[in-house]
Amino acid sequence: MQVRFWGTRGSLPVAPHASTITDKIADALVHANGKSFADKDAAAAYARDELEFAVGQGYGGATSCVEVDAGEGAFVVCDMGSGLREFGLDTLRRLSDGHRPKEWHFFLSHLHWDHIMGFPFFVPAFVEGAKVIIHAGHADAEEALRRQQEEISFPVPFHWLKADIEFRTLETGREYEIGELTVSLIQQEHSHASYGYRFRDADGKVAIYSTDAEYKIENMDAESAMVEFIAGADLVIADTMYSLADSVSMKEDWGHSSNIVAVDLCHEASAKRLALFHHEPTYSDADIQRMHGETIRYEELTRNGSELTVLCSYDGLCVDL
Fold this sequence. Notes:
Helix content: 25-40%
Radius of gyration: 20 Å
């Protein structure tokens, strides 16, 4: 199984200002200290391998979209954020070898706009003969997708899409077989409800997709249920939008969690890897990198068993399980 991140921001897409690019270039030049490069490839290797990630690269600005690829069969993707456009185009390129069906399975965490806004730009939905199956814990998923393509909001109506589109409402407490994957879901605390997903492949590898979830002291049963849900997972993609201080103070009841809570849950569940996800849109690359470092340090200080590897998701990250 390979997990690919096509969009990792929360709330709304973000793009760097011109001044942000200038700052990155200036930082890189200062770090290079007069070093010269034989060609562009050598310069790119220097930026990738020697500069801090926040300087030489970046976390991206597309909203939630994560692919779970079992290596064959239909494409499987979590959420339809703005990263979906690039994912859709990439899958069409991959179809050119003729070894995979023209079939896409979506698993929606919830129906807020940052998680469905990419669907009107999902090119495979305009392809004759393509099959698109949209799975959700919400019975009103079809209504949400059709409404965002009404004429007042978007020039291309939903009924113009040429793919065969099917909606399936899933239930918690059940397992579903989707190609090479076994899928189950859990309800989470969030406005209009949110659902986390557990994907298990034929080799027993497990990936968890859990975003837009809030955990409260007065509802520890939900936290215990999540620990059981993610138990032993090889990768947990978790909502870490806020710091702990923000999540329990001025942003309480906003429906999101923190990096600290994510580490605690993964430790208790004996998960192997944690990917920080759903980055706050106002955070710069340096802010996200700093949170990543702080999370690694917190994991080291609170570890009472096996090491939990802490990754920080970015647009383009691929993780092999």
